[in-house]
Amino acid sequence: MVVAESEARFKRIADSAPAMIWVSDAEGRVIFANRYYETVLGAPAATMLGDGWQRAVLPEDLPSFYTSFMTAFAARRSFRVEIRFVHKDGEARWYRCAGAPRYDSVDRFLGFTGCNLDISEGKRAAEELRRNELRFRAISESMPQIVWSSLPDGRIDYFNQRWTEYTGQSGADAVENWPQMIHAGDRARTQQAWQASLETGETYEIEYRLRRHDGVYRWSLARALPVYDEISGQILRWFGTCTDIEDQVAARQALARSQEELERVVSERTAALQSANEQLRKEIAEREHAEEALRQAQKMEAIGQLTGGVAHDFNNLLTVISGNLERLLRRLDDDEPDLARIRIAAEHAMRGSKRAAELTERLLSFARRQPLRPRPVDTTQLVMGMVDLLQRTLGEQIQLKTEVDDDVWPATVDANHLESAMLNLAVNARDAMPDGGVLTVSLSNQTVEATGSADVDPDMAPGEYVRLCISDTGTGMSQETRAHAFDPFFTTKEIGAGTGFGLSQVYGFLKQSRGGITLKSQMGEGTEICLFLPRSREDPKELSTGGLGATPALAEKAGDGTILVVEDDEDVRRHSTTLLAEMGYRVLEAGDGEGALALLRDNTDVDLLFTDVGLPGGLNGRALAERAIGERPDLRVLFTSAYAHEVFKSEDNLGRRADILAKPFDSALLAGRLATLLAEEPPVAKRSEPARAPVILLVEDEMLISMLATELLEELGLGVETATNAAQAMDVLAQDPGRFDVVMIDIGLPDRHGGELAEDVRALRPEVPIIFASGRSSSELEETYRHDQMIGVVSKPYDGRALAAKLSELGVAVRSVAPF
Ligand SMILES: Nc1ncnc2c1ncn2[C@@H]1O[C@H](COP(=O)(O)OP(=O)(O)OP(=O)(O)O)[C@@H](O)[C@H]1O
Ligand SMILES: [Mg+2]
């Protein structure tokens, strides 16, 4: 009863189990199969008894079952075997069969009890896993990269073949020692990154140098991703790759280098460009400066030409006007009351003409045509001698300072004009300092190395100069004022307060004196004007004690002697002769040079030749004087000129027995000069006849140029004859072809081209050299006649030096030009 009950309980439990439960007897036949058999196999459990169950097993699995079972049966041991049962739906499913022997209470073998568990699902999963694994391996082996995997703790458990190929490591060696393949310098960094990814689960990505089997390190990119368990979310493994990026890194580095290189080149180029630009700007500025200076010089030159021309004609007229007024006044000296009004009128007229004369003098001085008497001057003495006068001019509100260097050179300059220039500048400075200030006069030596040197007048030739600066602390000049300060008539002063001639006069004076002038001025910062005077190599003569504006004293005593007046302007001549006669001189007169020479020969008692510089008919005043002195060495000469262009030089061989008087002159000046000249001792030895001066035929249609050239040429010691066109020139030549030693031809003549005239001249006198004067660019002409030894070219405007140089080149003897 108890047995039956426990059997029933066993059956109940067994039937409720989700697995096949069976019991066999000692012969191996099944004696119990639970309900599960029926549930899955579809046949009643009873049909399983004995060998019945075998029909539900896949036949090919039976042998392996028997092998396990029989072995266990014989040994009375447990067994375990996996076989497939075919379910009722026809599906064969895996079961793990586990059996264990059973015994009774006296250890008699009773058979087996067993349990068959459906393991199909597990089997399938394992199979899937295996297949996946195989697939992964296949893929990873087929990849060109190194592929690896690791356990969640970071231990590597797989490398594909590439690793071995690359590093030479394999198997356990690779798994354990892979970190040694990483460059020592990259190891710590790599370890850190790997650790960080393991901790956070974030993608692992790092570049490091990986050692190849041959010891070469190449850059590699290592990358790894975690694979998660879908259910738990735990990291199952890491899968990683290493990609050789050596080429990319090299390219990247090359790119970086070339980028750096590019940047360097760009910045170099930029700098070069910048400096080129800077240079260009500087050059442009310099050029503009030079152009400005040139424009200024040309403007001054043009104004100079104009004013010079006007002043010249004016002076001749004024000579007549004022001379006659003077005579009129002298006659009106008598105390006749009814003449008083006429006298007042005449006096007014005289004052007017004096002022007109002053104006023309200023014009001439700007035009660089004033009669200057440059002499070696002790500049220090001159400046110090001016201090009193300057201080008086400046007034008490202005302090006068002098800064005079030791051993300042003497300068070749007209002392009187220099004094008046200083006075002019001082007056300007005073006007610019209405509330007082400081005026500084400084004196020093200055050597100019090259033309266009900074800080000096660009016109100045290289050489040695005395620098005389006058600077004030006054208002200074605006840019506009600075640009025009040297222009004649330019003034910012009220009408009547300034004529605008001060600076232009100083300018002209310095230019005529072969010196220079600079002007520095800024609004509110005062003004500095520096005068550059050419150094003199000679010892300065004592300055006349009269100082500024001193004029020879009016000759009190009556004139004594015979004077020959040579003047082509009839009015002027008449005035001069009358004046001289009134002074008590015996007077002879001539209208040109030849007439004068004739008179001189007939009248050996002539003491003094009073001649105009510009005379018609080829023999001008200068040439006349030379010829006259050649014949009469004791003769004194007084030149007069309305236009005296550098007639005299300090070392002139006419010496103390000649002088010059600018037109218009008054009787006092004339008397003074005459008295001084006539008082000079006559020379002891008679001068020998000088060699015949070379004679030049000057063919020039422009009157003013012809006059200027004549003066220049005569200064060079040449006799000059002029013609105003080609026809006239040929006439003159035909008359006496042997007379001329050189011919100078203006290229632009009114009737013919200068070149054609030159050919005719050559036909007549092949041995005579020819100079072309050209107003336009002379370079073409120069090129044409470059190889012709007998032809020279000078371009207008030319000066004495240029002419002298050309003449000497052509073998014509000239007197040297003064060094100022
Ligand atoms: N030292 C100076 N400071 C400031 N401005 C000056 C100075 N010197 C000359 N100027 C300016 O230059 C102009 C021209 O000077 P310039 O001496 O030629 O003529 P002026 O003084 O006006 O008249 P003038 O000298 O004929 O009586 C002046 O009107 C003035 O504007
Ligand atoms: Mg002035």
Give the tags:
single chain; 820 residues; alpha/beta; Beta-Lactamase; 6 domains; 5-stranded antiparallel beta sheet; 27 strands; binds adenosine-5'-triphosphate; binds magnesium ion
List the topology elements:
Blueprint: H1 2-16, E1 20-24, E2 30-33, H2 35-41, H3 62-75, E3 79-86, E4 92-103, E5 109-118, H4 120-142, E6 146-150, E7 156-159, H5 161-167, H6 171-177, H7 184-200, E8 204-211, E9 217-228, E10 235-244, H8 246-331, H9 340-366, E11 375-377, H10 379-394, E12 398-404, E13 411-413, H11 415-432, E14 437-448, E15 463-472, H12 479-484, H13 502-512, E16 516-521, E17 527-534, E18 562-566, H14 570-583, E19 586-590, H15 593-602, E20 608-612, H16 621-631, E21 636-641, E22 658-662, H17 667-679, E23 695-699, H18 703-715, E24 719-723, H19 726-735, E25 742-746, H20 754-764, E26 770-774, H21 779-784, E27 791-795, H22 800-809
Parallel strand pairs: 12-14, 18-19, 18-20, 20-21, 21-22, 23-24, 23-25, 25-26, 26-27
Antiparallel strand pairs: 1-2, 1-5, 3-4, 4-5, 6-7, 6-10, 8-9, 9-10, 11-13, 14-15, 15-17, 16-17
Helix pairs in contact: 8-9, 8-14, 9-13, 10-11, 11-13, 15-16, 19-20
The structure holds adenosine-5'-triphosphate and magnesium ion.
Catalytic activity: ATP + protein L-histidine = ADP + protein N-phospho-L-histidine
GO molecular function, one term: phosphorelay sensor kinase activity
Coiled coil: 259-300
